[in-house]
């Protein structure tokens, strides 16, 4: 069959013709398979051009009928649904409303591998635009059965998605009062509930409770179907036979000959059609014992009975509901399979009836049966089946099935092949962009020849490829080469490398004899043409070893050809394609006068390999040698500039392109846009974009990605809309570029709209787009959406797993993140990345889950990830945040190499754990090691100075920050304000504050808090008013600082006003810290009764700190009675330290109740609390002197105490 141009042939799938085989001859040829009403009750009804056949059962014809809505499904991924009215006769005995069907999703499908590698058996495409599950679904729908359950377990996502898209009740399919419901394998309480489906019967048993529910009381019969059989059957005939025979169980059977009998479960029936014996796949004597004496009992002719002496079960069962419940629940509670256990045992105690189905039926259990069944469907149409929306350009297709949205380029020859099609289209611009990058688009490239093959969905097959099993290999597993062979049928894989793998398969075969000939030749017998063809073969197949042999042969035998420019170019391309860049460069350097083609080849290789400096150096070397660049040079050298952020070199190269008149070339302009955007010059990028006379999707993507990279949401969305107005359809790369800026702007509605667009264009099947979508949902706070989408993804890579784990951790779902990591280790450990481990370790740190962290540490040692410095830094941070500072320091000492982040992690950990002196020591060590501190280092070092009350060290840190220009960083200035305030230098803190170019809310809060520490409450209030004057909105922390300032300055009225303003004026909900400040404010002012009332009116239970603030006030004002009541409340809540014991003891001491004070000290000791000795320190000439209560270890202790005694005398005068 020769096909030209665009084909949109809607070939309805039909049963195989009489020419298929003897087994195929018995099919009922009255109607088309899909989209028709099986066994229609009214003849000659035409639906969408399909003529419906007459009923196969004349006794069911009646003069009157009732109209009833049923549905025929002809659906592809684009959700093209149709609903039609068809008559249905009312049969009181066989009422489809009393039947529910259960379609079994099947097992792992190992015999159909690799087609079942990522999909369930029933989801395997068949007949061009259908799936195997559509067979029983169509039979059910066209038989009037509209209550359908589908049980799934293995690789169920692909099946679930097809069911949701094709049989979605909300999208055009009318099931009346029926439903299509997917029941996924799940675990339930109890020991038995921990197991997955153990077999067909066990799968139904796990959901049998549904039919015990009152709402299913009208379900009288349950139909059990397989999801991977190919046949057409009116189940109402089956049901009528079931009712007429009074059967408890009916088994649909087919007659088979001896050659096929051992593949099935066989039955023996008596003269009434009752099954008396049932054996599953018998062999030898058991098989011979199952020969049916007289199969004419089931309605076969004498000749048919002779040819088909065995009766085989089709795996289609009809149970009375009550019988099924009894069998699975009570009679055989441990039986797992219907065919091998339940039905054979039931034949003894229940009436099990056989129902003869004398039509076409095939179990799609193997690659061979799948292949034959598909191609048999072409027997009733001329040569082949071509599905909807295919592009076929002057190609030849013979005895094949071409699936939906397939693209076959010029000169393609296809024979005896099943091509499953594609989930999406690629535009001409997308295809051109891929070809320009030497990549392969979806479809089959020109002049490719394919024979006896199954091509899975979304396959990418390049040009001049031959896929043919010429050696007649029966079985082969060669995933590394891109294909499997099953029963002599070639099944290419669908990985990203499919084009190259298939090219390797074909081209290596084409040139195998020539390659062998090369290794044997000792004289220059090969022509130049043969050499170049062989080298091209090696390039296409990336066969480095064979290419080196050819190179060696050239060097040894043919000095003439080795200096030929064509040969040299092929050799250089070979080494570049095999990522042997140094070999390619060595070859390049041996060429006396390389032309622009050679320079372009090497510049491109360096640019793609990431060695951007060498690409740029080679470009300038080319200019110095007098060779002018061409339009193929600039895109790659500009890519190198982009990678280096070398905008000045990029501008110079832009000028070079202008001088050569190439600055308006579409590829050069696109590279310039990418360069300027990544270097931050968006205005220049937009100018280049605007002057382009023609813009393809890649140019639009570059400009959109530039705006998105810099967080310009409005410009990104504007361009996204404009490109569509100009007729350019966004592709998956466009979506990937837009999603980050949508996430950054927290525009969930826009993100959902993009998701909808992806579904319509089938971009959501792309793993990169899918990862971007779930990342967008996570960053917009919709973790449930992200999780659901992650679970629906067919293909996940390391980035996908890492993004989902990071989403959980970012949204504070730490445990879920750790569980997902455990799942990844089990399911997809090969895709673990350092980024994934870093995210998981951060979760351990947040949970202070040291045990999990240590296990991951061990895992990184065993897998070698510990050598990654990012993983090491995260481990270090985890130990520090878990408070295990000794382990952190030990691990830090073992790390090699270290970087700035390493030092920052240990410095921050020491500071958080109170090891302030150690921070300065490590900071000094960092400087000696030659590693430069950054602003993050100083943000940890400066607070250390305030912890040590060391203003001199703080001043040194300030000077260091000035010399390194860190003070331009707002966070550094904030740390300086805090440090100077806590070191008693409030005037210097204010100078830093006043000298800031940019202040954030933290800057104002730090300065207000500094005034509060020094008792300068009025200055704090003045600064607050100034803050409001500049238009900055205060936050909850601002009011904690203000209330604390008022408390330390006795500004009760102002504090009350601020508290009310926070609640009523700014709608800030007070937290516990605000209430603590207010109690402290009232208590310090002696308003104890008001403080008590304030506590009583709190909207939540006060904690120990609230009562502690009131207890401190009781001590000041000697209110022992109230203090004792407060102390009792603290004891009930549980004291958190010695502070409250000391307050109570001191309160008793102030009123001379020494015994009570002593009792408090005893209680403190008995409860395990030990008061730390009081400490004070002073810095003199850069040296910090610390003094502890009762400690006389200071070398000048004697002189110090002598001076103190003199001061006491002076003070008492």
Automatic annotation (TrEMBL):
Entries under Pfam families matching the protein: E_motif (PF20431), Eplus_motif (PF20430), NTP_transferase (PF00483), PPR (PF01535), PPR_2 (PF13041), PPR_3 (PF13812)
GO molecular function term, any single one: glucose-1-phosphate adenylyltransferase activity
Name this polypeptide is given: Nucleotidyl transferase domain-containing protein
Region (Disordered): 1-22
PPR repeat spans: 595-629, 665-695, 696-730, 797-831, 868-898, 899-933, 969-999, 1000-1034
Low complexity composition bias: residue spans: 1-21
Domain Nucleotidyl transferase stretches: 101-379
Family label: Belongs to the PPR family. PCMP-H subfamily.
Subunit details: Heterotetramer.
Gene3D superfamilies: Hexapeptide repeat proteins, Spore Coat Polysaccharide Biosynthesis Protein SpsA, Chain A, Tetratricopeptide repeat domain
Gene Ontology terms describing biological process: glycogen biosynthetic process; RNA modification
Keyword set includes Repeat: yes
Keyword Signal part of the UniProt annotation: no
Domain of life of the source: Eukaryota
PROSITE patterns with a match to the protein in the record: ADP_GLC_PYROPHOSPH_1, ADP_GLC_PYROPHOSPH_2, PPR
Keywords of this entry: Repeat
């Amino acid at each position: 069959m020769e096909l030209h141009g665009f084909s949109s042939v809607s070939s309805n799938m039909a049963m195989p013709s009489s020419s298929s085989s003897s087994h195929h001859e018995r099919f009922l040829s009255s109607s088309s398979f899909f989209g028709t009403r099986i066994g229609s009750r009214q003849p000659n009804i035409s639906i969408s051009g399909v003529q419906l056949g007459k009923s196969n059962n004349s006794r069911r014809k009646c003069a009157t009928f009732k109209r009833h809505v049923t549905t025929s499904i002809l659906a592809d991924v684009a959700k093209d649904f149709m609903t039609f009215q068809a008559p249905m006769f009312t049969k009181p005995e066989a009422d489809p409303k009393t039947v529910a069907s259960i379609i079994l999703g099947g097992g792992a499908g190992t015999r159909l591998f690799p087609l079942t590698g990522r999909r369930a058996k029933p989801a395997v495409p068949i007949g061009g635009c259908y799936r195997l599950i559509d067979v029983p679904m169509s039979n059910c729908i066209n038989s009037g059965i509209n209550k359908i359950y589908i049980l799934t377990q293995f690789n169920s996502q692909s099946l679930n998605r097809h069911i949701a898209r094709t049989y979605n009740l909300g999208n055009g399919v009318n099931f009346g009062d029926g439903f299509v419901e997917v029941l996924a394998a799940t675990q339930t309480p109890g020991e038995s509930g921990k197991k997955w489906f153990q077999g067909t019967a066990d799968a139904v048993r796990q959901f049998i409770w549904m039919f015990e529910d009152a709402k299913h009381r009208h379900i009288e019969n349950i139909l059990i179907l397989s999801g991977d059989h190919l046949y057409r059957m009116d189940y109402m005939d089956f049901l009528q036979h079931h009712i007429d025979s009074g059967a408890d169980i009916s088994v649909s059977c087919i007659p088979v000959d001896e050659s096929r009998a051992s593949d099935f479960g066989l039955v023996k029936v008596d003269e009434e059609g009752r099954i008396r014996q049932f054996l599953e796949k018998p062999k030898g004597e058991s098989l011979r014992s199952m020969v049916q004496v007289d199969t004419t009992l089931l309605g076969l002719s004498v000749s048919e009975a002779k040819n088909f002496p065995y009766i085989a079960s089709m795996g289609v069962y009809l149970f009375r509901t009550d019988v099924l419940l009894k069998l699975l629940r009570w009679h055989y509670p441990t039986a797992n399979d219907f065919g091998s256990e339940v039905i054979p045992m039931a034949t003894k105690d229940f009436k099990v009836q056989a129902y003869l189905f004398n039509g076409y039926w095939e179990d799609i259990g193997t690659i061979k049966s799948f292949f034959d069944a598909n191609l048999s469907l072409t027997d009733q149409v001329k040569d082949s089946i071509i599905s909807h929306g295919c592009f076929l350009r002057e190609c030849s297709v013979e005895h094949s099935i071409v699936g939906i949205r397939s693209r076959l380029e010029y000169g393609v020859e296809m024979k005896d092949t099943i091509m499953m099609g594609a989930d999406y289209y690629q535009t001409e611009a997308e295809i051109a962009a891929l070809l320009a990058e030497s990549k392969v688009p979806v479809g089959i490239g020109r002049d490719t020849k394919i024979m006896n093959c199954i091509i899975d969905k979304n396959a990418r097959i390049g040009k001049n490829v031959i896929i043919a099993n010429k050696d007649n290999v029966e079985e082969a597993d060669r995933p590394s080469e891109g294909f499997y062979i099953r029963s002599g049928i070639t099944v290419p894989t669908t990985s990203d490398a499919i084009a190259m793998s298939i090219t390797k398969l074909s081209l290596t075969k084409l040139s195998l004899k020539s390659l062998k000939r090369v290794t044997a030749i000792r004289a220059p017998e090969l022509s130049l043409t043969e050499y170049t063809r062989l080298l091209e073969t090696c390039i296409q197949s990336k066969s480095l070893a064979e290419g080196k042999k050819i190179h060696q042969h050239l060097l040894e035998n043919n000095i003439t050809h080795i200096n030929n420019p064509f040969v040299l170019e092929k050799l250089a391309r070979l080494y570049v394609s095999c990522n042997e860049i140094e070999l390619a460069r060595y070859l390049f350097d041996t060429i006396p006068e390389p032309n622009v083609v050679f320079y372009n080849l090497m510049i491109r290789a360096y640019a793609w390999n990431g060695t951007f400096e060498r690409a740029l150096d080679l470009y300038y070397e080319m200019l110095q040698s007098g060779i002018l660049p061409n339009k193929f040079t600039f895109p790659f050298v500009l890519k190198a500039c982009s990678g280096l952020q070398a905008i000045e070199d990029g501008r110079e190269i832009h000028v070079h392109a202008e001088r050569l008149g190439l600055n308006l070339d579409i590829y050069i302009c696109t590279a310039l846009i990418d360069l300027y955007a990544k270097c931050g010059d968006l205005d220049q990028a937009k100018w280049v974009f605007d002057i382009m006379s023609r813009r393809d999707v890649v140019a639009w993507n570059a400009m959109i990605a530039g705006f998105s990279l810099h967080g310009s949401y409005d410009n990104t969305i504007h361009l996204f809309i404009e490109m569509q107005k100009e007729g350019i359809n966004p592709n998956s790369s466009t979506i990937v570029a837009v999603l980050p800026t949508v996430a950054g702007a927290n525009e969930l509605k826009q993100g959902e709209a993009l998701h909808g667009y992806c579904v319509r264009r089938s971009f959501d099947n792309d793993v990169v787009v899918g990862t971007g979508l779930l990342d967008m949902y996570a960053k917009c706070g919709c973790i449930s959406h992200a999780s659901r989408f992650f679970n629906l993804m067919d293909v996940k890579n390391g980035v996908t797993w890492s993004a989902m784990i990071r989403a959980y951790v970012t949204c504070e779902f730490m445990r879920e993140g750790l569980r997902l990591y455990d799942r990844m280790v089990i399911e997809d450990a090969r895709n673990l990345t350092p980024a994934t481990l870093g995210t998981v370790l951060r979760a351990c740190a947040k949970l202070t889950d040291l045990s999990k962290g240590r296990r991951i540490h061990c895992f990184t040692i065993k897998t070698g990830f510990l050598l990654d410095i990012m993983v090491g830094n995260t481990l270090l941070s985890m130990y520090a945040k878990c408070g295990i500072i000794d382990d952190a320091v030990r691990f830090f000492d073992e790390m090699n190499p270290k970087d700035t982040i390493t030092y920052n992690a240990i410095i921050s950990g020491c500071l958080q754990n109170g090891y302030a002196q150690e921070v300065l020591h490590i900071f000094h060590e960092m400087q000696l090691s030659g590693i430069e501190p950054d602003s993050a280092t100083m943000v940890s070092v400066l607070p250390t100075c305030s912890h040590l009350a060391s203003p001199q060290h703080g001043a040194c840190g300030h000077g260091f920050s000035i010399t390194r220009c860190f003070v331009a960083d707002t966070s550094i200035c904030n740390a300086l304000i805090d440090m100077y305030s806590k070191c008693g230098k409030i005037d210097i803190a204010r100078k830093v504050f006043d000298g800031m170019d940019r202040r954030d809310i933290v800057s104002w809060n730090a300065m207000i808090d500094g005034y509060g520490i020094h008792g300068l409450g009025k200055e704090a209030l003045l600064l607050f008013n100034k803050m409001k004057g500049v238009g900055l909105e205060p936050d909850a922390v601002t009011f904690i600082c203000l209330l604390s300032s008022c408390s330390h300055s006795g500004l009760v009225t102002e504090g009350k006003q601020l508290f009310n303003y926070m609640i009523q004026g700014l709608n800030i909900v007070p937290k516990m810290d605000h209430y603590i400040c207010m109690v402290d404010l009232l208590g310090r002012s002696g308003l104890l009764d008001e403080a008590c009332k304030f506590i009583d009116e709190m909207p939540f239970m006060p904690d120990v700190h609230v009562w502690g603030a009131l207890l401190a006030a009781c001590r000041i004002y000697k209110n022992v009675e109230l203090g004792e009541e407060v102390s009792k409340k603290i004891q009930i809540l549980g004291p958190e330290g010695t502070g409250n014991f000391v307050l109570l003891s001191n309160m008793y001491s102030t009123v001379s109740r020494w015994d009570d004070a002593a009792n408090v000290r005893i209680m403190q000791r008995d409860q395990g609390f030990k008061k730390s000795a009081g400490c004070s320190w002073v810095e003199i000439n850069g040296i910090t002197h610390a003094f502890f209560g009762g400690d006389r270890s200071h070398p000048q202790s004697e002189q110090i105490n002598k001076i103190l005694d003199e001061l006491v005398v002076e003070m008492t005068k």
